Amino acid sequence: MISIEPPSLILPEIIQAGISTETIVYSVIIFFLLFVCAAMSGSESALFSLKPDENKKLKSETTKDSKTIIQLLSNPRELLATILIVNNFVIVGIVILSTFVLDENFPVKPGNELIRFLIEVVGITFMILLIGEVVPKIYATNNAEKFSRWVARPLYFVSKMPPVSWLKWVLVSGSKFISKTKKKSIQISSDELEHAIALTKESSTSDEEQKLLEGIVKFGRTEASQIMKPRIEMSALDADSDFKEVLSFVLDAGYSRIPVFKLNTDNVIGILYIKDLLPFLLEEIDFNWLSVIRKPFFIPENKKINDLLQEFRNMKMHLAVVVDEYGGASGLITLEDILEEIVGDITDEFGDDEISYEKLNDSTYIFEGRTTLNDFYKVLGIEGKDFELIKGDAETIGGFINEQSGRIMKNKEFILQGNIKLIVDSSDKRRVKLVRVLING
Fold first, then answer.
1. Are 374 and 385 in contact (CB under 8 A)?
2. I need a labelling partner for 159 at 20 to 30 A (CA). Which of 126, 231, 274, 416 fits?
3. Domain ranges for the chain
4. Does domain 357-439 have CATH number 1.20.81.30?
5. Using 50, 70 and 90 to split pLDDT, how confident is the model at 192?
6. Could you give the CA distance from residue 244 to residue 125 in angstroms, rounded to a whole number?
């Protein structure tokens, strides 16, 4: 049976024994190695946490520190291998020297095995984690540029030392071989990716970068009907128009591609490319302009825009006609509409404001009823999940109000959706024209 002596009886033995020169030397070396360990751990966090603007600033400078940092980051695999090699050797050294110190000053005796085990395993591990890992990584992450400048040249010097450079070559070569022979695809859902992006929102990205990342995540979930231009707003040519009327319409519309319909806009029969008309500008009024129209590209309303973008690329097309379940045209979608979902609004010298609304104060807005729900979410800065769950077939604010009420609501009537109040400011027998939006709380 093992008996354990209380610490009060063991500690006096250590004190009486005194501290030898070897113990002092070993202790000094241990603290030096802890310092190196902290520098290596911190350098990993600092160098790989540099923001794009900090990287740009370093590249524009001509100081030795800046050039060294850029040189280290130019080969991240070698940099990481250097840090890991040095860190692991240092940690092994700390453990070995700590064992020597304990053996000399606190040898294993019957009754003190448990205390020796706790000091050797728990105590040393805690010391390495706290001083050599956690504290320096937290500091380095919050002061990435400053810490990087401090460790860059020592780290570069260490990386060129023969033992380290040899081991580094072995590790890098081995990692390259493994990555070539076994490539494992990681499956991640859009919700998990969206959550990961939300975690970076505090400091690592700017507002513009954050919006870009969020746009990419939501890109695969967006359907064509959510971003299309509805049929009622579509500029389209009547197939019965003469050539003079066509030229006049083209000048007024200002578009490079115009859908052509027969009888009504629900029946699109082709797409007129304005460049196809250029050789015939001097033709007579009876010129058969329908001979140059191209075959339209039809897509269903629920077509995902990431798939549509790939089809646009493969077919070298820029425009598609969105059709409903009965085959009638319900709207128009362009390549520009799709790209705007990632990069934000794209306007040229002929473009108008994409979203028509008025902000009265931080909690009150006025929207046109034809504003799409997607644009509505963007302006309010919300995800709109609650709206999407109950919107039915509605794609606009006015349509959403009609869907929830089951009728076209009159002026001053309203509906509540969570903390958002949608008040009809103007409507007629056919549609909701203006909606006042109040955000509570």
1. no
2. 126
3. 7-181, 190-219, 224-343, 357-439
4. no
5. low
6. 86
